[in-house]
Design goal:
The structure is a homodimer. With about 450 residues, chain A is mainly alpha-helical. Chain A has three domains: about 130 residues, MgtE N-terminal domain-like (MgtE N-terminal fold), CATH 1.25.60.10; about 100 residues, CBS-domain (Roll); about 160 residues, SLC41 divalent cation transporters, integral membrane domain (Tetracycline Repressor, domain 2, Orthogonal Bundle), CATH 1.10.357. Chain A is built from 24 helices and six strands.
Chain lengths: ~450, ~450
């Protein structure tokens, strides 16, 4: 849907909901794709979301379920929470079990149990199985629906078997297994279309399969799909038995989410913080981080406090404090962004860490030298005090060097500690660049005070 | 390839290249997937890259071309630049024309012309056609290779036609056109597999097609593929004539690149800045941004300069300057990250901008009140001067409110100016939060100086 027309649809949706004209609401939306309805829904407040969902559910429960599965898990859980258990279990039987497995853990625990009891045995079992795997692993996001046949099957039997099984959501490959259901090959449906009916699958299958294990991290799954240009990747257990498939649409969700998370974690934001959240909800999410920031932000003032004597004697130094600090911060942020992103897209490893550090230090020194020279030069001329310019220039060089050092080390050390490399890295960096910036400026000024005043 | 084994492969590759044992190099790499070789290559320096590429090219020019097309455009262009024209045109005839179209513009202009002349007519024409479309549009990234047949064709003829055409890279749909080659429907290969041989395509095709136009922005293309869970999206011209297809692997590249770009632009980094670049290359890329930052970073010192009189009388104020400034910066960064990401994933529009602004202002006030109260309280007690605490607290509240205001407005205004909403937004924000932070702290202190000292 175009942005223009979406705007109109959203405002009409709102109007009809608030007027209570459910028939007009249904007529407006019935021909839209589920994805379009869900993106309209994202712009509504909770009460409107519920009304819209109920209207859809009454007229076309299949479509309502599809819309739900297109929503963000948190949004979907927010709606589900308000429905009666029997209705939830109906909906959960329609949508894919990997989607159910992502929504269910967000509901109150007793509700989860009741829903799983109420659901039919097969889908309920599938969901419970997925929930056994750890969060953010291939096992958690995989779909247990896929085409898989024994290697000795011939092509025409394979096609009949697929037809009998019915439509499998976004299936583009047929997986081939041996008698023990171990993954041994893969055939694209395109190859199947072109193959002679009596050929055996083992004679046309590709044996060089790219797969992941149930415990593979979802980011790694996404990288494999992206690197090898796949549209789906098979998931096997520790005995190489085929248990599921992760499709590219789930991979895109992972990539989107991880990119947002990286950015959010860099600036100490909770990754569930949304533009649509109420102010109070966002305050609750951000306040703990800001309180922690109070601690990191208190280090620089402690440094400054040691130098109030020098400042009293030469108050003009205060003017240069923010300049030295913010240039260090800006250069350090650049380094952090590069290192975090390279770790995220899987290019940084320990072998290249030393090289990256050396390179960033060189960049820090180089940029520091240029900026320091310029700023020191300007200061010398403006204030007619060459020694003063020298100190400003040196403080800049030191701080840009330190910015490169800590900008590289913070994400790498966080990764070494098995924490997210982006986690609060900007706060930690600012703490260092502010403190070292002030320390070098005021420290040098104190040392050379006699030549300055 | 696992990180562990990749490390070994990289160091062996290096060793063999530097020893000049090309046979051992080939034996090491010949069974790897092109994507794996290209990710090994990304860890080498330019000279090693070239040697590796030439070794591959001598033994298996097809594989060498595949490796090239898996590389980053810049890396690929770096290698291509060093090869003779005849070899380049051979390689460009093997790899997909959309990949050629992304590498070619990075080469020297006269080289581009020579290559296009040297290439065979068909691929050369395809590439030139793609290059007519603007950068970062569907036309630029689409592939002109796809299956498309007339709606009156029956299923068995369609399958034969596809077989005759040969393998089309990552084709999962058959597109259906009318006599004027206008796009009228789509059939998944899965549907084709199950259909009766004498059915006409128009009887089984899906008429409700999701497509984009050649001038659609690549980010919008990516959003459509992601929202509707597609693996490929057809591209039409202004007359609805089918001209190409964008596949999901290209979409993933776009999403990765845009996520990196957002993050990089926020901190004023060139999006082509890479961890593997030489220090000098990175200095050249970052220095212009840092010089610009010198300007934005010079605003706050000008503010401070107005208040040196107050500072001289009450030097303890200096200790609180970095605290007020950095808390404002941290809160503002949070707001910017949220707004930039929501714009990127297409959730923010003008209608919701006002709502977002109001919400962020409330959050700024709320968080400001809490942090201001805490910090003001602590200061009052520690320094035994309640008026001083009051001023610190008020400065925090004002600065967090301003941070929310400019953090929301900067990306929205940049978008309104049709610039990238992330572009240098952190620099601009720091400029505002530093200046306003100092202004409120020092300004209030000046007003109430008599009560403070």
């Amino acid at each position: 849907m175009k942005v223009q027309s979406q705007r109109i649809v959203i405002s009409s949706t709102r109007k009809f909901i608030n007027m209570g004209s459910m028939t007009r609401l249904w007529n407006l939306l019935k021909n839209f794709h589920a994805a379009d309805i869900s993106s309209v829904m994202e712009h509504l407040v909770t009460r409107e979301k519920l009304t819209l969902f109920n209207t859809l559910h009454e007229r076309d429960s299949q479509k309502a379920a599809e819309v739900l599965s297109e929503l963000d898990e948190e949004d979907a859980a927010g709606i589900i929470r308000e429905l009666p258990i029997s209705q939830i279990s109906d909906i959960f039987q329609i949508i894919a079990s990997d989607d159910v497995a992502s929504i269910l853990p967000l509901l109150p625990e007793e509700m989860q149990e009741k829903i799983l009891e109420e659901m039919e045995e097969e889908p309920s079992g599938e969901v419970q199985e997925l929930l056994h795997y750890e969060e953010e692993t291939a096992g958690r996001i995989m779909s247990p629906d896929f085409y898989a046949l024994n290697q000795s099957t011939n092509v025409s039997d394979a096609i009949t078997a697929m037809q009998l099984e019915g439509d499998v959501e976004s299936a583009f490959y047929m997986y081939v297994v041996d008698d023990g259901f171990h993954l041994v090959g893969v055939i694209s449906l395109r190859q199947l279309l072109f193959a002679r009916p009596n050929t055996k699958l083992q004679d046309i299958m590709t044996r060089d399969i790219i797969n992941v294990r149930t415990d593979t991290d979802q980011e790694q799954v996404a990288r494999s799909v992206a690197d090898y240009n796949l549209v789906a990747i098979p998931v096997v257990d520790e005995e190489n038995i085929l248990v599921g498939v992760v499709t590219v649409d789930d991979v895109i969700d992972v990539i989107d989410k991880e990119a947002t998370e990286d950015m959010y974690k860099m600036v100490s934001l909770d990754s569930s913080d949304r533009i649509q959240d109420s102010p109070l909800k966002s305050i609750k999410k951000r306040l703990p981080f800001l309180l922690l920031s109070l601690l990191t932000a208190s280090v620089a003032p402690l440094v400054v406090k040691q130098f109030t004597g020098t400042i009293e004697k030469l108050v003009i130094l205060v003017v240069f404090m923010p300049l030295v600090a913010s240039l260090g911060g800006i250069a350090g942020n650049q380094t952090i962004a590069i290192i975090v992103r390279e770790i995220a897209i899987g290019q940084a490893d320990w072998m290249s860490a030393r090289k990256a550090l050396f390179k960033e230090l060189m960049v820090g020194l180089g940029n520091g030298a240029v900026i320091g020279l310029i700023l020191g030069g300007i200061t010398s001329v403006l204030f007619q005090r060459p020694f003063f310019g020298l100190i400003i220039g040196m403080a800049i060089i030191i701080n840009l060097f330190v910015a490169a050092l800590v900008g590289t080390l913070i994400p790498l050390i966080l990764k070494l500690l098995r924490l997210d490399p982006a986690l609060g890295s900007v706060n930690l960096l600012t703490m260092c660049t502010d403190s070292i910036g002030f320390l070098s400026l005021l420290g040098l000024a104190t040392l050379f005070l006699s030549k300055l005043s």
